[in-house]
Amino acid sequence: MGWTAPINSKLTDPVNSPLGRPATTDEIAWMGSLLNIGAIFGPFLGGFAASKIGRKWGLMSSAIPLFIAWIMVAVASNMPILYAARIIWGIAVGMLFTISPMYCAEIATDDSRGALGSFLQAFITLGFLLVYGIGPFISYHVVAYVGLVFVAVFAVAFFFMPESPTYYLLKDDREGAAECLGVIRGRSRNGVEAELNLIASDVAASMERTATIGDVFRGSNFKAFYISCTLVFFQQFSGINAVLFYMTDIFKASGTSLNPDIATIIIGAVQVVSSFITPLVVDRLGRRILMLISSCGTAIGAGLLGMFFLLDHNDSPVVESISFLPVLSLVLFIVTYCWGLGPLPWAIISELFPIEVKAVASPIATALCWILSFLVTYFFPSISNSIGMHVGFFIFGVCCVGSFFFSLLVLPETKGKSFQEIQIMLGGGQKPEKA
């Protein structure tokens, strides 16, 4: 996902481009956007794999498109190969964003589910920092080899991880569920029996209700669905991808003498530190309070960026005296985004849906996320060039304000609640009806 940041300059290099010629601005823009296209379809493949071959093997199977795409990147000599690689990467990313939250939610205890769900965003930022840190200083091909090594390490290491107990119970294999739950909890069969009974009762209730796409739009399922879709809308329309896309321009606008590569590494480090705070506090403070803080911080950050670029657009003399503002706003925006809007939609989506609906609804919400991501990534530069960058940031700021009020008035607090308690809460205090 972060590969383009250090690679774009290598592809546009007139002397050392692996393509034998410098890539055009339009080609770079398309290459950045095409991962989103693949990621629109990946969730449906991931949801199918999770229900048919299991959460573990669904995640393992995502290594196949990752391997293929890294090899294509390593041998690419023209842009169509890179376009294809980006789409294939996107399919893998879509699979991972669907199955990983599902797997984490199903192996977690009620009081650690938020933390485990938040690790998805935290480790994404760690991957960003890795590629930001090594990309500018090693060759194009070595970056691809490093990517291949990481996929290989994942495939080997995850082979030894247990399956989700929920999947075994869905397949009516109680012994398999007991065995893997014992491995996950580090306890004997007797030690996990009580928890196994609770999971089994949830699964048994879910199996009495077969889910179709139509079921997603009924009752408490629809409430979970529109909450999930609204969360991913605010996540993408907070403008995070636009902010990261324009990071170099923002640093240049601030008048700082800092090398853009070094500035990117610093921002990457800020993202990592911020993202690893959320797993530590999400199960103490709760989801709603972190979403409120995050929405407020990103609204202020986007608003300040919009104000700065509006003044700059109008050639205001004030700009020189507030050249520190873009960097300050950028750090505020990214730090607060990483506290809530970044990680929590994925953690919350994995909690809201009943087991039988999750495999149908989660891919739709994840695909929506990537459609929105494509729209923001592709159209923001056009809006900025035609009517000014400030307009985009003001739109993002308004969306962040909307996220604040949505979190305050609509978002349910799921901290420490079991899946059954969450379903009762979504149903307005009523237990879910049996089909």
From TrEMBL:
Signal sequence, start to end: none
Domain Major facilitator superfamily (MFS) profile: 1-415
Compartments, record wording: Cell membrane
Membrane topology label: Multi-pass membrane protein
Membrane spanning residue stretches: 28-50, 57-77, 83-103, 115-134, 140-161, 224-247, 262-282, 289-311, 323-348, 360-381, 387-411
InterPro entries for the chain: MFS_dom (IPR020846), MFS_sugar_transport-like (IPR005828), MFS_trans_sf (IPR036259), MFS_Trehalose_Transporter (IPR050549), Sugar/inositol_transpt (IPR003663), Sugar_transporter_CS (IPR005829)
Gene Ontology molecular functions: transmembrane transporter activity
Keyword flag Nucleotide-binding: no
Lipid biosynthesis found in the keyword field: no
A Gene Ontology cellular-component term: plasma membrane
Keyword terms of this UniProt record: Cell membrane, Glycoprotein, Membrane, Transmembrane, Transmembrane helix, Transport
Main location: membrane
Sequence similarity: Belongs to the major facilitator superfamily. Sugar transporter (TC 2.A.1.1) family. Trehalose transporter subfamily.
Name of the protein in question: Major facilitator superfamily (MFS) profile domain-containing protein
Organism field: Euphydryas editha
